[in-house]
Amino acid sequence: MEPKGKFRVGSVFALLVLCLGLMICGAAQGAEEAGTLSQFAVRFEATYGELAELADSKLPLRIDGRETYSQGPLSGNVRYVVTRKGRPVVRRMGDRVAMDVPLYFSVTFSSGVGIPVSANADGELVATVISRPRLTPDWRVATDPEVRIAWRKPPAVNMMGFRVSFQPVADRVLNDWVAQRKGRLDVILNEKLNLRRRADELWRALSKPVPIGEGDILWLVARPERFWASPLQVTSKGILMSAGLDARMRVVGGAFPGRPSVAPLPNLSSGAGDGTFRVILPATIHYAFVNSLIAKNWTPRDIRMPDGGVARLERFGMTGRQDRFVLGAQLIGTDSKGSPFDSVVNFVGRPSYDVATRTVAIEDLQVESDGALAFLNDSVAPALRDVLRFPIGDQLDQLSQGLQGALSGLSYGGARLDFRPTSFGVIGVSADSQGMHAKVQAQGTVTVSLK
Q1: Any signal peptide, and if so, which residues (predicted)?
Q2: CA distance 426 to 410
Q3: Which of 122-131, 232-241, 365-374 has the highest mean pLDDT?
Q4: How far is CA 58 from CA 82, 184, 191, in A?
Q5: With 90 as the cut, is the pLDDT of residue 91 above it?
Q6: CA separation, residue 247 to residues 224, 254, 389 (Å)
Q7: Which of 99-103, 221-225, 252-256 has the lowest mean pLDDT?
Q8: How far apart are CA 18 and CA 283, in angstroms?
Q9: Residues with Cβ within 8 Å of residue 181, at least 6 apart in sequence
C-alpha cells in the first residue's frame, strides 16, 4: 500500500522558499499590502575628537580691536589682540560637554593726557564653553552655551610705581565677543550636521525599493511614517543619540515594483530606543502559483486500494479555508471488479515552521474524510508531508547577507550607514483564503557616522 514514484514538486517549489523562508511571488492583499509596521533605529555618535576638529575648523584664530581704559590716574586707549594658542579640547563635564579653547591676550596701552605713557602686557587664559545639546522638533540642535574664563597668566604691567592690570579689559572683550556670537555656535553646528536635509534625503531614499540579493529578484519596499529621536546623551567617549524611523516594510518579488509617492518629512518627535533595527517582512505564497508548480512537477503513482483496486492521485490544486489550506486531487482508478471510479480527495493542513531546524513543513496534513478514503492518511499523507518540507537555513543566511549588503555602506548627505545583523529568521507562518504567509524578522544594529 506504499505509493510509488516521486512527488517532485519540492525542487521547483523550493524557488518559492529560497530567499525569504517562503519565496515571495507577489505582495499580500489587504493589510499586508502596506507592509508590517517596523522600527528602523540607528545611533548617531560623535566623539570628542570629532567635535574638537569641527571647532578647530570653525573658530577664529585671531580677534583684535580697540578699547578705552581708565584705572586710577591712568586713562587712555588700549589695542588688543586675542589669538588661539592651540587646538580646542572637547571633554565631558558631568552631563554636559565642555570645550576648552587656549588663548593668548596681548595689549598695548597709550595715553595722550599729560606725560605720554605707553606700555605692553600679555597674558594667557582658557575660555571654556559648556553646553548640553538638545534637539528641537524642527530638526535643529540647540546648545544653550555658558562661557567661563580661567586666567593662567593675567595681563598686567608695572607703571608709575604701581601694578596695572588689563584683565578687566580682556574679560569684558571676551565676554562681549562670546555673548554676541553665542548664536553662531548653534549656526555652525547646524550647518555641519544639517539634520533636516540628511533626514529628508534618508526619508526619500528609504522610500525607493532596494534590491536584495543577486538578479534583482527580491525588493525591500519601505513606506516611512515617523521619525523620532531620544535626548542627546553625554558619555565618556562623546555624545550619542538614538533615532528611529517607523516604517511599513515588505518584500516583493519580480520586476521593479515602482517608486511610491513620498509624503513630506514630518517634524521630529520625541522617542526612545536602544539603537536596534527591527523589521518584519511579510511574504505570501499565492495558491495559484503553487498550483502551477504542482501541475508541472507531479508524477502520478499507483495506490493500492483496500478492496484490491488500483488508483492514482492526479490534478492537484491548493485553495484556502479559514486558517488552513486544502490540497485537493482527483483519485482516478478501478475497483477490485474492474469498474472505473473518479472521486475528489481533499488533504487539509497548516503550514508550520521549525525554528531549531529552520524548516518550513506541513502540520496536521490529513484526508478530509472519515470513510473509505481514510486509508490515505497512512499511505499517502506521510509521503506528502515529507516532500513538503523545505530547509531554508542557507537561504535565510543568504537573504541576511543580502539585506546587510543592501543597507550597509549607503551614504546620504555625508551620513554613512552600517548594518550588522544579530538575528534573522521566520517568526511565523499561516494560511488564509489568499495563500500561505510567512513573516521574517530581521534584527540588528544600524550605526550612522557623519563625515
Answers
A1: 1-30
A2: 26
A3: 122-131
A4: 16, 10, 11
A5: yes
A6: 4, 22, 33
A7: 252-256
A8: 12
A9: none
What percent of the chain shows pLDDT beyond 70?
Answer: 76
Cβ neighbours for 327, distance < 8 A, ≥ 6 positions apart: 316, 317, 318, 346, 347, 348, 349, 365, 384
What is the spatial distance between Cα 36 and Cα 79, in angstroms, rounded to a whole number?
Answer: 68
Cβ contact 311:296 at 8 Å: no
**What CA–CA distance (Å, rounded) separates 450 from 120?**
45
Query: What is the residue whose three cell numbers read 579689559?
Result: 169
**362: in domain:** no
Q: In 50-182, where do the E strands start and end?
A: 62-71, 74-84, 89-93, 96-111, 117-131, 134-135, 141-142, 146-153, 156-159, 162-165
What pLDDT, on the 0 to 100 scale, is given for residue 202?
Answer: 76
pLDDT band at 8 (very low <50, low <70, confident <90, very high): very low
pLDDT in tens, 425-439: 888 888 888 787 778
User: In whole angstroms, what is the distance from residue 326 CA to residue 239 CA?
Assistant: 57
**Parent domain of 143:** 48-191
pLDDT interval class at 220 (50, 70, 90)? confident
What integer is the mean pLDDT of 447-451? 58
Helices (H), 46-149: 48-58
What is the DSSP-derived secondary structure letter of residue 202? Answer: H
Dmax of the chain from CA atoms?
Answer: 142
What 3-state DSSP class applies to 384? helix
Extract the C-alpha cell encoding 387.
516532500
In-domain check, residue 250: no
Q: What is the value of pTM for the model shown?
A: 0.51
For residue 59, tell me if it sits in a domain: yes
On whether the CB atoms of residues 253 and 55 are closer than 8 A, the answer is no
Asked whether the predicted pLDDT for residue 3 surpasses 50, the reply is no
**Tally of domains within the chain:** 1
Nearest Cα to Cα of residue 121 among 84, 151, 83, 81 = 81
Number of C-beta neighbours around residue 238 at 10 A: 17
Q: What is the CA radius of gyration of the chain?
A: 37
450 domain-assigned: no
In the three-class reduction of DSSP (H, G, I as helix; E, B as strand; rest coil), residue 382 is classed as helix
